[in-house]
Amino acid sequence: MDCVDFSKAENFPVLKNDLILRASRGEKIERAPVWIMRQAGRYLPEFQELRKNHSFFEICRAPELACALTLQPIDRYGELLDASIIFSDILVIPQAMGLEVLMVPGKGPVFPNPLETPDCFTRLTEHVDVEEKLGYVYKAITLTRHKLGGRVPLFGFIGAPWTLMAYMIEGGGSKTLFKAKSWLWKYPAESKALLQRITDIAIEFLVGQVKAGAQMLQVFESWGGELSPQDFKEYSLPYIRQISEKVKERLASEGLEVVPMTIFAKGSWYALSDLSKSNYEVVSLDWTIDPAYARKMTNDTVALQGNMDPTALYGGKDAIREIATKMVKAFGKDSRHIANLGHGILPTVDPEDLKVYLETVQKVSAEIRK
Ligand SMILES: Cc1c2[nH]c(c1CCC(=O)O)Cc1[nH]c(c(CCC(=O)O)c1C)Cc1[nH]c(c(CCC(=O)O)c1C)Cc1[nH]c(c(CCC(=O)O)c1C)C2
């Protein structure tokens, strides 16, 4: 019997379901692929069980545990999911840059010593060795690719530079982001220097994730919608563009597969046209955007991902069926559509209700293509 070494990014099992890769590239699909942001998370009792005995970042740093959590939704929902996403967090980049981040149960991420002024740059590591600091994510990706057995493709991801900068200054979640945004007015040059430092690491990290086995990449600009259209153009878009352009250049020049990339800029409806011209195959939509409007603004040049309101999963099974059906129909049968929610699944959703959503999407999106 052949012995495959699960620590090596080679001899991966053959992919059996490439629906999401085809949808991303605008190829013909028999139905819309579906996956869920935060699908490996707190709404699953099996996640809670494992989490009881381990801290959040301990799990991220232990490839066996991160792999086990990534597989939980895939094992539970079987063929109802068309993609997996590696269990990790966007905040591993600020950690690699030298900032401490804690995950406080019931509160979320906390930076005990956030950046207060640009003088604090002295606390950041000058040259981050991405492999040394974040190699644990690569190991988790490689192991997961083997253990997935080719069932579905595996996403790697990062937080976009503006979103990470905001966390590094706010020190955690925030309603107004007034501390991070005040940097844009008080220290525009230093803000751009910080965004560039994050961008350089992000590029390296995404290339490393593909090398390790990631088959798609998603960039989360979760706090895009806190910026005005003008500020988005200045402090978010240029870095989002650099990331897709340079990652693809690097992948091609290193003879690696140039994998499809998704941009999710939550709240940035005004930027849809710009985002569709930013070298991403997929633009992800939050639930406030009408699919027809998005199709028009992106001029039908990209695949669209989304976008049921995550709280619709609290409406009961009949409402879920009705709302999911409407959503699938709104994206239409000819369009490139990857079904998802408009943001991450909330921690108190009943996993059986999510199942109804997945079943409905698969059924309806196949029916309208017959
Ligand atoms: C893609 C991803 C993320 N986090 C996690 C994953 C991997 C798992 C998956 O998606 O299935 C695990 C992931 N990350 C976290 C959890 C819960 C941690 C726990 O067990 O206590 C999980 C499962 C913790 C976390 N980490 C973060 C928050 C948000 C806090 C805030 O509102 O400011 C929280 C609560 C930061 C974070 N993390 C992430 C984002 C971008 C997506 C989004 O906008 O939701 C953001 C903003 C991305």
Would you kindly provide a written description of the structure presented here, covering whatever features stand out?
This protein is of the alpha/beta class and 370 residues long. It has one domain: TIM Barrel. Helices cover 46% and strands 11% of the residues. It is built from 15 helices and nine strands. The strands form two sheets. Strands 1-4-5-6-7-8-9 form a seven-stranded parallel beta sheet. α13 (291-297) links the parallel β7 and β8 (303-308). α7 packs across α8, α7 (161-170) packs across α9 and α14 (317-331) packs parallel to α15. The chain is globular. The mean pLDDT is 97. The site of coproporphyrinogen I has 24 residues, from β3. Coproporphyrinogen I binds at residues 37-42, 51, 56, 85, 87-91, 103, 105, 108-109, 157, 173, 220, 222, 343-344.
Question: What descriptive keywords fit this protein?
Answer:
single chain, 370 residues, alpha/beta, TIM Barrel, seven-stranded parallel sheet, two-stranded antiparallel ribbon, 15 helices, globular, binds coproporphyrinogen I
